[in-house]
Write a sequence for this structure.
């Protein structure tokens, strides 16, 4: 159980009063008043507790002050073994009160602080919540194509680890499926054993105080020369753990249960081709169209409501999905209206944007007489799983 201390109370009050303006979010923060988001105390506490037996030696905490405080006050980690990368003068003050060495970062273009950390490596463990600032790390050499600052920072944090070193991350969910993060995902699979991925509901700000997004991920990984990642522990919304083969697809689906793996596998196995897709170019003869804008919560129970059949939406950034015939369009249009389709899509569409890639991956199928149940070998057990999910999120 988390100890209630004067320092934790002071930090909580400071967060509530927005007294942690971040050097990393000067102009484009997605968070109020340019502050790096605060997580609840419970999530990092439980994440550390689950992996505490592995947190030995030289540790680094990046930006998330709560991690550092919990390590010292609740898990009796010697503060002299810790380094804290700070994006706020007040965070620096609090960390130093505990006797933690602080490296102060002046922002995403400050390579001096990152070089200081590089000179200190290897670390035995790293705890981090990466910033989203687009200006990050132009001086960092990457082993994959530079697509997003977020992937750059996550690579940098992981690269500081020793062999067998452990990393604990708090992450959004979009990186698990979006093509922009493919390089980082591949690098992780080649260099780290993913020990646990846990999916948490943040629709009401349960994880990040005052910030709502569909899901938040915690991930535990270990650096190793011979990772397999064919039996990775998943936990969805605090449920029973199950194992996942992360090498199966180019994405890391947002699985909900062992049954959800079978449901997605059946859809991927039985498709005859990926859908053709486009954004503003002229669509094919048979298509559906939607606006490529934010679609709200990832768990959207009625995705077809966003589309029109055979008419290109007269909006900015339309997307279209193309089919091989009128019959195929008509049968897939019916499938899009089912909770089965919404359920499967929710495992891939981990971005708030309605990006065509997720629909394309579900593919075009050779349905017979609109019989989706037979086509996908849907059992009563599958049906109950989908209905329980639908009742939970609708």
């Amino acid at each position: 159980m988390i100890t209630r201390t004067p320092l934790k109370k002071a930090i909580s009050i400071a967060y509530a009063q927005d007294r942690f303006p971040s050097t990393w979010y000067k102009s484009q923060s997605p968070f109020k008043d340019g502050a790096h988001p605060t997580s609840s105390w419970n999530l990092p506490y439980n994440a550390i507790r689950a992996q505490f037996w592995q947190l030995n030696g030289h540790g680094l905490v990046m930006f998330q002050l709560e991690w550092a405080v919990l390590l010292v006050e609740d898990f009796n980690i010697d503060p002299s073994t810790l380094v804290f990368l700070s994006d706020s003068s007040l965070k620096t003050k609090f960390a130093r009160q505990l006797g933690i060495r602080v490296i102060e970062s002046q922002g995403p273009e400050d390579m001096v602080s990152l070089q200081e950390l590089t000179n200190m490596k290897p670390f035995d463990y790293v705890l981090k919540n990466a910033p989203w600032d687009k200006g990050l790390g132009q001086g960092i050499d990457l082993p994959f194509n530079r697509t997003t600052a977020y992937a750059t920072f996550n690579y940098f944090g992981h690269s500081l680890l020793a062999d067998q070193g452990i990393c604990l991350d708090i992450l959004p969910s979009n990186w698990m499926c979006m093509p922009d993060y493919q390089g980082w995902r591949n690098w992780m699979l080649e260099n780290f054993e993913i020990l646990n991925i846990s999916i948490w509901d943040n629709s009401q700000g349960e994880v990040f105080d005052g910030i709502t997004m569909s899901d938040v991920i915690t991930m535990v990984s270990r650096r190793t020369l011979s990772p397999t990642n064919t039996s990775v522990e998943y936990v969805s919304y605090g449920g029973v753990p199950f194992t996942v083969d992360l090498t199966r697809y180019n994405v890391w689906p947002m699985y909900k249960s062992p049954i959800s793996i079978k449901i997605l596998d059946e859809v991927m196995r039985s498709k005859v081709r990926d859908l053709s897709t486009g954004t503003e170019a002229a669509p094919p003869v048979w298509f559906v169209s939607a606006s490529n804008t934010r679609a709200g919560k990832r768990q959207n129970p009625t995705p077809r409501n966003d589309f029109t059949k055979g008419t290109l939406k007269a909006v900015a950034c339309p997307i279209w999905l193309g089919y091989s015939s009128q019959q195929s369009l008509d049968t897939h249009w019916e499938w899009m209206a089912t909770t089965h389709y919404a359920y499967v899509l929710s495992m891939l569409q981990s971005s708030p944007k309605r990006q065509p890639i997720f629909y394309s991956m579900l593919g075009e199928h050779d349905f017979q007489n609109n019989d989706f149940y037979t086509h996908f070998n849907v059992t009563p057990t599958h049906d109950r799983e989908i209905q329980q999910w639908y009742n939970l999120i609708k």
